[in-house]
Amino acid sequence: MGKIVLKQVRKSFGDVHVIPSVDLTIENGEFVVFVGPSGCGKSTLLRLIAGLEDTSSGTIEIDGKDATMLPPAKRGLAMVFQSYALYPHMTVRKNIMFPLKMAGMDPEAATKKADAAAKVLNLTNYMERKPGQLSGGQRQRVAIGRAIVREPAAFLFDEPLSNLDAALRGNMRLEITELHQTLKTTMIYVTHDQVEAMTMADKIVVLQAGNIEQVGSPLELYNHPANAFVAGFIGSPRMNLLEGADAAAVGAKTIGVRPEHLEISTTAGQWKGTVAVAELLGSDTFLHVNVEGHGTMTVRGGGDVNLRHGDTVYLTPQAGKTHRFGQDGKALV
Amino acid sequence: MATQSSRATARLMLAPSVIMLFVWMIVPLAMTIWFSFRIYRLLSPDRTGWAGIRNYTWFFNSPDFWLGISNTLLLVGGVLAITIIFGVLIALLIDQPVWGQGPLRILVISPFFVMPPVAASIWKNLFMHPQNGLLASAAQGLGMEPILFLQSYPLGSIIFITSWEWLPFATLILLTALQSLSSEQLEAAEMDGASALSRFRFITLPHMTRAITVVILIQTIFLLSIFGEIFTTTQGGPGSASTTLPYMIYKQALIAKDIGRAAAGGIIAVILANIVAVFLMRSMGKHLDT
Ligand SMILES: Nc1ncnc2c1ncn2[C@@H]1O[C@H](COP(=O)(O)OP(=O)(O)OP(=O)(O)O)[C@@H](O)[C@H]1O
Ligand SMILES: [Mg+2]
Asked: Which CATH number is A200's domain given?
């Protein structure tokens, strides 16, 4: 129903090659998250799939049919925009019914469907309001409702939660995940928030400068990053990447150790440093340590770590948790 | 304006300007009402006194009066219809990314900078003139009789000329409204399966209603008092075919030199303007609220 295959898709705006060449298969029912730094082409790739931009070359298949030349409406996909893009002069009900009205469904059936969607999304009490009279989270739900009623082959989300505050984002994250489990429809979700990426995705696609750096499940990416970029991008706080003698000793250009894989000691260890900043979160403590010869390293300790600015610490990587990267940045195995 | 005291302060602070505006309006209006009941003819200055409602009855009994009213309304309505419809279409066109967009927009706006009598003279003498006009020679080139625009279709010609002058204004306002429409809304509608026509009908047009309302209200104010175009082209003729209420007032004041009657005409014009204003605010005022 919602299998999407991109074959050598390229996109240029004039001389700017935003997407050099992308091959990607999205299986039916999968929750796929595109992550990457700002400006790497996530939105562009999503818009190519949606049909809002034309590909410069390559093909896009939806459900085994070539959809490269199809207009957006004919692709059977629904999109939720970052700005929600609700129709401000229509009530919530009319907003949700709009795609059905455009499809020529008779108003009674359309109303029934809109009401059903509203029930799922807890919008029943707001149906006669205009979008301007709703909170951010409610608007987001209306946008999702408008997407649901179409029963699309796949949902496309472009940073749908970035305008919400942290608590609401957490809630909506759960709601979207639940929605995916209920509907079992393919979802493609763009974000630069890697907590969203890690928690929601079946499959994460890491992009950089329009290229796919790695595709895999969240844990695959976390445990076996294919290169230094993915290693630095996935995981929070960021992985510590070290060069020099320590790396050369294990035959690599760069080695990486995640903050949670460093042992802290006040007496002995591989690297000696002084604590620059200690962030006490209660459950965890993040130490930013100035290590001689390596600059600042981040360490994650338990809530009971009692170290302050200026204290001397020794850091040792846990056995087998060090990632090695070669000259070209690729992981060495 | 949250609290009682801030509201009271606001009223106090506004009072001087409100009073000023009220005096500004009421003094000329009171004088006009006063004159409209007086006998006041510049050609026979010794005859003075009260005229009762004779100045008004003269207007109502004048054979041109209802023609003048209907011409005034036709002029306003015709120009509004043309400027809004073509304003929307031109705004849609020049909103597209095209080569030379900047100069193109300035060209579209430029007729608005031509003063009304000049614009009317240009159209009268260079385009619509039966011997020298461009349209006449075009007609002759096609082997047809030149159309005597100002003689055969006087009101139509004036409506056309006035629309030409006001089209840029409408286009400009509607274009700014169009540019403030978020492209994501249109894209969302596109994904929702709306055709280009449906997108215009359900997204773009509703987005522009407020701007359209503003254009209608502002233009109505100015169009009700259109005078220069008529004076320059047809002088209200042939006969009284293109006479409007303001033109009748002008004739009473400056040709017949009867200030009393002109004042009565002025009051009738004020009443007409108010009827139009009430009608407009009733039918469209709600579009101005957010
Ligand atoms: N219409 C356009 N014309 C020219 N360049 C464009 C256009 N749209 C996007 N770009 C460029 O393409 C690149 C990718 O843009 P895109 O919007 O896909 O980034 P993104 O990954 O979604 O970033 P963000 O996380 O900030 O939303 C950017 O460098 C941007 O400047
Ligand atoms: Mg983006």
From this structure: 3.40.50.300
